[in-house]
Each structure stands twice: as C-alpha cells, then as structure tokens.
Amino acid sequence: MPTATSGPPPWQRWLYLGATLVLLLPLWTVPRVATVDGPCHLYNAWVMRHLHDPAYPLFATHFYIDPEPVPNWLIQVLLYVLLAVVPAAAAEKLLLSFYVLLFSAAAWWFAGCQARERRANAFLALPFVYNLLFHFGFYNFLFSLPLFLLAVGWWWRCRERPTWSWALALHGLLLACYFAHIVSLVMAGFVIAVLWAATFERAGWRRWLRQPLVLLPQLALPLWFVASRGASPAASNWTPQEKWQNLSELRPLFLSHTGHGPGTALALLFVVMVAATVAGARREPRDAAAARPRARHPFLLTAAVAVLVYLVCPSGMSGGGVLEPRLVLFPFLVLLPDLAPRWRRFPRAGLTVALSLLVAWESWSLAVWLGRASRGVDELLAGHSQVRPNSRVLDIVFDVYASLDRQAGGHAIGYLAGEKGLIDWNDYQAGTGYFPVRFRPGIRIPQHSELLPDAYQVRRNGPRVDFVYTRAMPPGSHLRRKLRNLYRLVASEGEGELWERRRRWLAPLRRRGRAAAGSPPSGRPASPGAWRPLPLGSPGSARAARPPETPPR
Questions:
Q1: What number of other Cβ atoms are within 10 A of residue 425's Cβ?
Q2: β-bridge mates for residue 496, sequence order
Q3: Which residues pair with 64 in a beta bridge?
Q4: Rounded to 5 degrees, what are φ and ψ at 133?
Q5: What is the CATH number of domain 378-516?
Q6: In the chain, where are the structural domains located?
Q7: What is the pLDDT of residues 406-437, one digit of tens each?
Q8: What was the pLDDT predicted at 73?
Q9: N- to C-terminal Cα separation, the chain
C-alpha cells in the first residue's frame, strides 16, 4: 500500500506489532482454549510422553507410536516438548501463541517478497489467523499456513540466484510443511509451479528450466503417502452456490458472531485492491512495461488459478476431509505480494488503521466466545471428577453438532484424560492411520455414532468401558434405559451424567461367552479362542478401527 521504497513507515510497523499482540489476548483471557480437536492433540502428546510410565499402565497396553513419516507429526512433537515444562492448558496456549506470532511474521515477510513497500499488505492477512480450522482444533493445518507463506516467499526471493544454503532452507521449510499438513505442501508446490511458469524468460531459458529441479526430492513423501492411503477423492458436499458464497463472503472467517458482513467486506476489499492494482499497471509508462519481460502480476495469476482449484476440488482425498474450507484461504493469501494500488497516503493509512480495528474487534468477540465455550467445557470436565484414574471412558454428547461451541465438548475429556491415565475411547486420532499415536492391533474400539447416540450398544461394549459420560441425554432416551440395566449413575453436573459399570453383571456375560465359544465348564482352563470380558486395563480381542470423523462445515 505505501509507495516508499524503504518499506512501510515506522508507525505502521508498530501498529502491525500491536495488532499481532491483540490477537494473543483471546488465548490468555480464558482458562482454556475451547476447540473441537485441540484436547485430542494434548491427550496424544501426553500419551507419547508417558507411554511407558508405570504410573499410567493402560497407555502401554492400548497405544503405540508408529514411526511412519505421515503428516500431522509437527504438533505432536511441539506439544511433547512443551508438556515437559508446563501444564497441558498452558502448553496449548503457548503453542497457539507461537502460531499467531509465526503467522504474523510470515505474512509480513511474504507480503514484501516482491517489494518491501508492500509489507503493509500483511494487515489484510491478520483476520485469517482465527479461521474455521482454528475452531475445529486442526492445529497442524494452522501451522502449515505460515510455513506455506515462508516456503513460497523463500523460493521467490532467491530463485534466480540459487545456492546450496538456499536449497537446504527451502527443503527444510517444505519438509516442515509436509509434517504439518500435506494440503499446504501440495498448494506450495502448485503455487511455485504457476509462478515458475509465469516468469519464463526466453533469454535465460536454461536457468529457468533448472529452477524446478531443486524441488524434485519433495515429491517422495507426498507420493508415498498417496500411494499408501489411496488417491480416491470424496465427492464434495457443497453445491456450486455454497462454494461461491464461502469464497465471496469468506465464511471460514469471523465465526465468533452471527452474520457474514465482515467477511463479505474483507473479500470485497481484496477485489477492489486487485482492480486498483491492475488499473494502475495499465497507466504505467510503456517504456517501463516493455523493460519487464515477464508477467506483470504473477501472484494475481496464481490466485486466479487457485480459485479454480478451489471451485473444482472434492471434499476430501486420501482419507482426509474438510478440504474446501482449507483451500478457500489460499487465493487471498497468495495475493499479498502483488497488491499495489496507487492510492494517496491518507487512504492507505486509513486502511491500515481500519484493518487494525477490525482485528481488535474480532479478538474481543473471540475472547467472549471462547469464554462461553470454556464454561461449557469446565462443566463437562467437572462431570468427570469421580472417574477413577486408569479407567476407560466413553463420552456420548447428544447435541454435539447443535453449535460450534457445543462441538468443543466432543473431545474435551482430553484435557484431563492424560493426567488421570484414562483411555479416552473418543480419541479418534489413534484409530486412524494419520497420526503418530495409534491403538495397538487387537484393541477393540467401542463403536458409537455421534449422529445416533441412542444406537450405542451398551451390552456389547460394556466390558471395555468402565465409565460412560452422557451430555444432554433426553429423559426418555433409549440409551438411558440400557445404561440403567448395566451401569449406575454416580454423578450429575449440569447437563452431564456419569455412569459407572456395575461389577455383578460381568459374571453372566463371562458364562455366556464361554458357552458361545464352546469353552469347558467353570473350573477348567478356557480354550485359547474363548471370549471373555476384559478386566480393567487389558486390550480387546479384535481390531475395529474407527474411521476419521469429519466435523460438519
């Protein structure tokens, strides 16, 4: 936005720093940051750190660490380190604070990768910090966004003067991007490819052809991942109209309040700045334009192609999901280095101030929203106070999809399951092949549907579930009647109820299991294949991996 060749004036730099610090306030004004999958990350990092700790005997019998080089390693490693020095809640806040600072710095650096005076365009990126994926607790993808900006910016700045140190740094950024989230790595490769094609020079075509050769080793891990997980896409759940609305109204942003006015205004601002940039380039003197043999606006061209990719993309691929809300962010972020409208000084200054006020308002509304959601999480955690350490627990939330803040209770038990040594059967990450911590082969995972909680089979899963916690269960629910037969109500807190398995009903099940398996009478050794209920802390007998759950949009 500014035109001075030395970069933005000092007051804008200080304003940007202040806006970044304001973005940290929502994280530190609440007891815990209530997100959907955030507690799962904390729980699995705790399991990694205490996998063979004698104080947590169930961890080693139920989990193991798979060393496969799958994505999603980055957050688990960072939390593993943080949990060594701070409590779980503080570790999550420090992790997210690092993300906010990294995103802000990366956006500032990326926006100025063509010209330093355009660094103030980074103000446009700050509202993207707390997007839908933040509320879902997809921390790996969040960290992949600044890594994407750093990788693309690093390639752009030094592509014409490649050195070994530049190549090593580029591979380090892309590798970190892969272990954060593969979508951002693929988008980084895609953006670099489009920029490379847009900057063709006939005079230096040999050097131009050598540029992509540096990136060839980065194909190894993504190709292995797709080959091992499959490449079949999942059909999109969004209609073309919904895709356009999410793009034109930036619906993945500003979720802490109702309405899409701020997102629509921000998207419109991007459009106006693109139009002003193109119009200003048309008024450029012909001799200056002729001296530029490459594309005038390579990042604008890349953003246009990224929009097309978003519009035709499926909802998931290779087992992953929620693809559209991720891809809709990239066209806007890629635009930052090319936005150069020829506006006067006062409009440019007013725009940066207005964007800072927007960030402050969003931070305040998010802090209020997180405070309300964290109170619901605190109520849920209080309902688990009578769960014995080293037990196996299943949470069944009836209204989990009623609202975004209610979804934050879906995996909230992860905040205390680690410290108590509990087996959280809602830990969907361990039941997939996309995270480092996994359930051991042979562990029989209790199956239940978040959409049909009444269909949960109490008797079949009872031997593996010591406590069942229900939230917002209707008085006349079929599940309540089934629980009363096999469990006893031990605590009630707000909308939550805690049920403990009765001991006496295991004996009939044991006899029934021996009879069904052809076991000898009581008093004689059971045959190796006989079914028997599991004592506290022992694994199951057959694997039933739970498919990854995808939060609704």
A1: 26
A2: 471, 493
A3: 438
A4: -70, -25
A5: 3.40.50
A6: 10-370, 378-516
A7: 888 888 999 999 999 999 999 999 988 899 99
A8: 95
A9: 34
- Render pLDDT for 353-380 as a digit per residue (tens, 0 to 9): 999 999 999 999 999 999 999 998 999 9
Name every residue whose Cβ is closer than 8 Å to that of residue 507 and which is 6 or more positions away in sequence: none
Q: What pLDDT, on the 0 to 100 scale, is given for residue 209? A: 76
Please give the C-alpha separations between residue 90 and each of 85, 253, 375, 415, in angstroms, as whole numbers: 10, 25, 17, 11
| Both tokens assigned to 399 | 């209204």
Burial class (CB in 10 A: 0-12, 13-18, 19+), 164: exposed
Q: What are phi and psi of 102, to 5 degrees?
A: -65, -40
CB within 8 Å of 3: residues ≥ 6 apart: 117, 342
Instruction: Please calculate the CA angle 41-45-51 and round it to the nearest 5 degrees.
Output: 140
211 within 8 A of 172, measured Cβ to Cβ: no
CA pair distance 349, 510, nearest whole angstrom: 75
pLDDT at 131: 95
pLDDT at 241: 92
Choose the weakest-confidence range: 91-95, 179-183, 237-241.
237-241
Structure tokens at 208: 């131009």
Q: Whole-angstrom Cα distance, residue 170 to residue 154?
A: 7
Structure tokens given for 361: 């308002």
Instruction: Indicate if the pLDDT at residue 505 is higher than 90.
Output: no
